[in-house]
What we know:
Radius of gyration: 23 Å
CATH superfamily of the largest domain: Dihydropteroate synthase-like
CATH class of the largest domain: Alpha Beta
CATH architecture of the largest domain: Alpha-Beta Barrel
Low-confidence stretches: none
Number of helices: 12
Strand order of the largest sheet: 8-7-6-5-4-3-10-9
Number of domains: 2
Largest sheet: 8 strands, parallel
Mean pLDDT: 90
Helix content: 40-55%
Shape: elongated
CATH topology of the largest domain: TIM Barrel
Strand content: 15-25%
Structural class: alpha/beta
Distance between the termini: 19 Å
Amino acid sequence: MNMERINRKLTKKVRVGNTFIGGDAPITVQSMTNTKTEDVKSTIEQILKLEEYGCDIIRVAVTNFESASALKIIKKNIHIPLVADIQFDYRLAIESAKNGADKIRINPGNIGDKEKVKEVVKVLKYYGIPLRIGVNSGSLQKELLAKYGAPTVDALVESALREVRLLEELDFTDIVISIKSSDVLTTIKAYESISQKVDYPLHLGVTEAGPLIKSTVKSSVGIGVLLYEGIGDTIRVSITGDPVEEVKVGIELLKSLNLKKYGINLISCPTCARCNVDLISIADKVERRLTSIKEPLNVAIMGCAVNGPGEAREADIGIAGGDKNFVLFKKGKIERTVAENEAVDVLIDEIKKLLNEKKNI
């Protein structure tokens, strides 16, 4: 399949635990737990589940010294980089670094003065831990709000650059930057602006994006436009709900722009009056049964012969509905016809065979 490629801006490469952000490293998908971090058991269980769905980096809220201490145990029981999200108390950043955090995220609007940042940087340098400057429209410095009258693009960018300059003065450059707004256009313009001014890797996201559908739309537009422009090195889709959905949407977003090869790429038609099979139910069943597959594979499930053969020809494998039956396509060739009630099982079996063949090549 001939696929267009996006030319990414080359940024500084920053190591975060066992992975990298920026430079030539693949764009990573992040999420954040919604458990109480000090509830170690629940937090570990949620992170392991997120790992299963392809999460590359996980962030936890560190709100007190108990949660900072919990990082030691959490770190030992997970397999992806652990980021500590710090609000207000710079001492929690220091404790998190000592307890194994792979990255620290601070908000310039509430972390404190230069001396507090200096203390954090001293510890980060010692442990070789990077810092994310996380600027949010909802927690901008008061003086910048007074200067600009609102969390405008210029206000957000100036907030980030202030912190960058401070860190550079302290001879610290292991920096990742995010500039998030709940307004999509503000988010896009802010990232475009900061991208022209610095070469540090950028963490993309639309903050407070809302429940699943609203967030998926806003994040896909905001993050998608920036990625298309070659801007961005890691992403987090912010969803009010199960963080697994954040990872699933994030991965699909990257796959849609040919920026990630991961798992099943399911192609299915929206159905219409030409469809004489229960395509919706079949597509849902196939998607659920293929969730655990991480190898990239294009699978087509089409409702009729109008678009079916063409889409299936582009896919590695696919089925196209007929009159209460399906035609199975494999590598562009018609294999056989199967009954509707056998279609899911036959397709799953053929997919497993195809994946085994690829492993043995």
